[in-house]
């Protein structure tokens, strides 16, 4: 994959238009931050890109098992065990199970634990580990740091730094700009159903501007 | 892909089947204990109760499995890039396999009860109404095991009909067309299945002209066996399809073609991923 391209994504909930022609074109190796206020449609957009929601118009260059998607809440039934979740990923994705098990060993999550027995933070951890260990062309992360303790936040950021070296596109929708400030290669702001132009973070830095300042300016 | 879906969902299906069998086993043991030392007529009554209980289970558990199949449209499959068609195939496969396994196990349980309860008490068995021994292989012979795949076929047909109605509701944009298409679909499904059933189990010009044995047999291609067992699946179990009746097979194959054609024409959903 040379580039990850989405064009003209439109989505309505009844009469309310949430997305009205979102476009994005990111080269392989990009780390894209999607910024925006609550309710602007970030999760809706990621659900579309992650093939969860198919009721939309527009085009997406890569979908399905080539896209790993960490949702805010796992769709996998909570009465199932962590081991079964790993089995599921192993069956349906190109999944590095050994790596996932190694990462799990560094957490307090047991493989035999049921998902419902895990705290919200632990569920986020296993959610991240599973999607991170999928060998996909695109990795989508929706608010990846929510509910996580400082230690695992560090694990996520470090893991993403490692992965940023690879030829993949990582798309993160987040409010935690500071934590990803040094990872973003591009950022875009979702506002009024439209994605703003993809802005090169290096260029911003060259202008002496931080991502947070850029975001603040975009909202005005 | 069906195998992958089967492996992902086998535990909940196995749980339902095992729970159904355990409840039946508890019922069987309870009734059996209650009959110890009782008079023959009372023991015969209890045996009828057990058989009735097992018969109810043979309807209830397949229906539960059907409901589970209906709710098998899970977003984590979509997220993993499975098309709706593949998900439906997986649900159908699960439904067929687990219904067959459950019914076969239930019939073995009924048979074991038949042998154990009436051991040395043929007089009690003589007072028991034979019609209630629907699932007993002792009563009907080993060919009665055909019930298992036969009920599974009916459940699969129910699921396909549900899928057609679901698409009739989902595909049109306007409410009027949704209602119209759904009503037409319901009418078509009822008439079609009724017609196939009548053609399969009733004597008629078509059957008389064919090389099939009389239609009260589920074994049309083995006339000798059919005469021996004289079995009509459909008449004794409402969920059992006459699966060895060639008219039924031909009718349902046509139905499968119509189903496939409708799905192709109507489409399953917007922005469906292409089959890989």
What does this protein structure show overall?
The complex is a heterodimer of chains A (220) and B (276). Chain A has 220 residues and is of the alpha/beta class. Helices cover 34% and strands 25% of the residues of chain A. In chain A, the strands form 2 sheets. In chain A, strands 3, 5, 6, 7, 8, 9 and 10 form a 7-stranded mixed sheet that branches. In chain A, strand 1 and strand 2 form a beta hairpin. Chain A is globular and about 50 Å long. Chain B has 12 helices and no strands. In chain B, helix 1 (2-34) runs parallel beside helix 4 and helix 4 runs antiparallel to helix 7 (147-170). The termini of chain B are close together. The relative contact order of chain B is 0.11. Chain A binds chain B through residues 50-52, 54-57, 63-67, 69, 74-76, 80, 84, 87-88, 91-93, and chain B through 4, 7-8, 11, 74-82, 269-273, 276.
Instruction: Using a beta-carbon cutoff below 8 angstroms, give the protein chain pair with the largest interface and the number of residues from each chain.
Output: A-B, 23 and 19 residues
Instruction: Return the average pLDDT of chain B rounded to an integer.
Output: 82
Distance between the termini of chain B: 11 Å
What is the strand tally of chain B? 0
| Element string of chain A (H = helix, E = strand) | EEEHEEHHHEHEHEEEHH
Distance between the termini of chain A: 36 Å
Strand content of chain A: 25-35%
Q: Largest sheet of chain A, if any?
A: 7 strands, mixed
Which spans of chain A have pLDDT < 50 for at least 5 consecutive residues? none
Number of helical segments with 4 or more residues of chain A: 8
- Count of DSSP H/I helices of chain B: 12
Radius of gyration of chain B equals: 22 Å
Oligomeric state as shown:
heterodimer
Radius of gyration of chain A: 17 Å
Fraction of residues in helix of chain A: 25-40%
Structural class of chain B: mainly alpha
Q: What are the low-pLDDT stretches of chain B, counting only 5+ consecutive residues below 50?
A: 208-231
**Roughly what percent helix of chain B?**
over 70%
Shape of chain A: globular
Average pLDDT metric of chain A: 86
């Amino acid at each position: 994959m040379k580039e990850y391209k989405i064009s003209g994504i439109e989505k309505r909930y009844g009469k309310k238009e949430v997305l009205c022609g979102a476009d994005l074109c990111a080269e392989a190796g990009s780390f894209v931050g999607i910024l925006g206020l609550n309710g602007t449609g970030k999760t809706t957009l990621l659900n579309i890109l992650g093939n969860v929601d198919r009721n939309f118009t527009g085009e997406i260059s890569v979908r399905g098992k080539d896209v790993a998607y960490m949702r805010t809440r796992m769709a996998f039934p909570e009465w199932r065990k962590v081991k079964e979740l790993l089995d599921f990923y192993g069956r349906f994705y190109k999944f590095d199970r050994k790596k996932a098990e190694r990462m799990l060993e560094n957490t307090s999550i047991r493989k035999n634990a049921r998902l419902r027995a895990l705290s919200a933070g632990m569920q986020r951890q296993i959610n991240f580990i599973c999607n991170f260990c999928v060998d996909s062309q695109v990795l989508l992360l929706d608010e990846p740091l929510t509910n996580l303790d400082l230690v695992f936040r560090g694990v996520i950021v470090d893991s993403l730094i490692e992965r940023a070296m690879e030829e993949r596109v990582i798309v993160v929708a987040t409010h935690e700009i500071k934590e990803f400030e040094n990872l973003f290669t591009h950022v875009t702001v979702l506002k009024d159903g439209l994605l703003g132009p993809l802005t090169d973070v290096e260029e911003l830095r060259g202008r002496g501007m931080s991502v947070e300042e850029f975001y603040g300016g975009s909202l005005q | 892909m069906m195998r992958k879906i089967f492996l992902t969902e086998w535990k909940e299906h196995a749980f339902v089947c095992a729970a159904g069998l355990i409840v039946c086993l508890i019922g069987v043991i309870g009734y059996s204990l209650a009959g110890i030392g009782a008079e023959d007529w009372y023991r015969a009554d209890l045996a009828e109760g057990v058989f009735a209980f097992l018969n109810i289970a043979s309807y209830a558990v397949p229906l539960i499995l059907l409901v589970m199949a209906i709710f098998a449209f899970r977003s984590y499959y979509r997220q993993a890039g499975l098309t709706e068609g593949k998900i439906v195939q997986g649900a159908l496969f699960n439904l067929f396999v687990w219904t067959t396994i459950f019914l076969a196990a239930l019939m073995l349980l009924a048979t074991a009860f038949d042998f154990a309860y009436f051991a040395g008490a043929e007089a009690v068995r003589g007072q028991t109404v034979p019609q209630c021994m629907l699932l007993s292989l002792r009563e009907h012979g080993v060919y009665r095991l055909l019930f298992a795949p036969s009920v599974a076929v009916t459940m699969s047909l129910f699921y396909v009909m549900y899928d057609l109605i679901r698409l009739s509701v989902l595909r049109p944009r306007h409410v009027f067309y949704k209602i119209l298409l759904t009503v037409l679909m319901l009418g078509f499904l009822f008439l079609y299945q009724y017609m196939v059933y009548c053609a399969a189990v009733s004597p008629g010009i078509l059957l008389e002209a064919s090389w099939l044995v009389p239609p009260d047999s589920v074994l049309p291609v083995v006339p000798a066996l059919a005469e021996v067992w004289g079995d009509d699946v459909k008449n004794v179990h409402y969920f059992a399809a006459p699966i060895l009746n060639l008219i039924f097979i031909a009718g349902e194959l046509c139905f499968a073609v119509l189903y496939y054609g409708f799905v192709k024409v109507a489409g399953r959903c917007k922005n469906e991923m292409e089959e890989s």
